[in-house]
């Protein structure tokens, strides 16, 4: 499926007010956790590139109606769907889908604000894995 959006701001501006607020807050946490990462559009949503690989990608269009952050290792690393996660889930925020793919889900600004430090820690630890 071709990307509907070419720029992140275009994507954000097209969201309803509630999701825009969630996405904007999460974007700021990601950018603070690892300044200087490249932000672009992947899978019709903002994604963050480190070392040439997409590592954190938003999923906003889902049946749950929440904003998800997909933690992944890009397309070059082999994924084991039955393998143990390569990172601990100390804060209980990640639902692991494989050894190298996990999802954090958020439905309310208050939830993100309350867990800001933990979210930033997860992002920083995730990006430290090579």
Q: Could you write a compact summary of the structure shown?
A:
This protein is 32% helix and 23% strand. It is of the alpha+beta class and 130 residues long.
Domain module tally: 1
CATH architecture: Alpha-Beta Complex
Globular, elongated, flat, extended or rod-shaped: what is the shape? globular
Query: What is the residue-mean pLDDT, rounded to a whole number?
Result: 94
Q: Rg from C-alpha positions? A: 14 Å
Main pleated sheet: 6 strands, antiparallel
Low-confidence stretches: none
Q: How many E-type strands?
A: 6
- CATH fold-type name: Aspartate Aminotransferase, domain 1
> Helix-strand pattern, N to C?
HHEEEEEEHH
- Category from helices, strands and their pairing: alpha+beta
Widest beta sheet: strand line-up: 1-2-3-4-6-5
The total count of helices amounts to 4
Model description:
This protein is an alpha+beta fold and 130 residues long. It has one domain (8-128): Aspartate Aminotransferase, domain 1. Helices cover 32% and strands 23% of the residues. It has helices at residues 8-13, 17-33, 109-114, 116-128; strands at residues 38-42, 45-50, 53-59, 67-71, 95-96, 102-106. It has a six-stranded antiparallel sheet. Helix 2 (17-33) crosses helix 4 (116-128). The radius of gyration is 14 Å and the shape is globular. 20% of the residues are buried. The mean pLDDT is 94.
Topology:
Elements: H1 8-13, H2 17-33, E1 38-42, E2 45-50, E3 53-59, E4 67-71, E5 95-96, E6 102-106, H3 109-114, H4 116-128
Helix pairs in contact: 2-4
């Amino acid at each position: 499926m071709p990307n509907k959006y070419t720029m992140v701001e275009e994507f954000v501006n097209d969201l309803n007010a509630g999701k825009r607020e969630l996405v904007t807050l999460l974007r700021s946490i990601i950018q603070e956790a690892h300044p200087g990462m490249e932000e672009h559009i992947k899978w019709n949503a903002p994604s963050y590139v480190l070392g040439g690989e997409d590592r954190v990608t938003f999923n906003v269009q889902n049946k749950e109606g929440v904003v998800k952050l997909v933690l992944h290792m890009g397309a070059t690393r082999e994924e084991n769907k039955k393998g143990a996660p390569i990172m601990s889930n100390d804060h209980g925020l990640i639902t692991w889908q494989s050894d190298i793919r996990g999802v954090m889900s958020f439905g309310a600004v208050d939830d993100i604000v309350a867990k800001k430090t933990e979210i930033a820690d997860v992002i920083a630890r995730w990006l430290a894995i090579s």
